[in-house]
Amino acid sequence: MSDALALISHLKKFGTLVTFNFKKDPLTKERTGLAFATYLHYDDVNNATTKRTQIVDKLKAPYNSIEVNIFSQKDKKATNKIKLTQV
């Protein structure tokens, strides 16, 4: 299973995903260890962020530990987007 599918499978446990994307370095095209996911409902974000540091079972250590945070923009109070960082 690819890293992306493993992460998506992990995140689907918390609700309905609308989008998911990895960020890549513009020069090397390598993944930066940062990803964003958007859920259909705000409650799904709350479910996904109850534990900030999470272990993705289908990924091998040390790449299976992620930090999950609510992604907020300065002009928006509520959001249905989360930011994932490889720990």
TrEMBL record:
InterPro entries: Nucleotide-bd_a/b_plait_sf, RBD_domain_sf. It comes from the Eukaryota. GO terms for molecular function: nucleic acid binding. It comes from Coemansia spiralis. The lineage of its organism: Eukaryota, Fungi, Fungi incertae sedis, Zoopagomycota, Kickxellomycotina. This is RRM domain-containing protein.
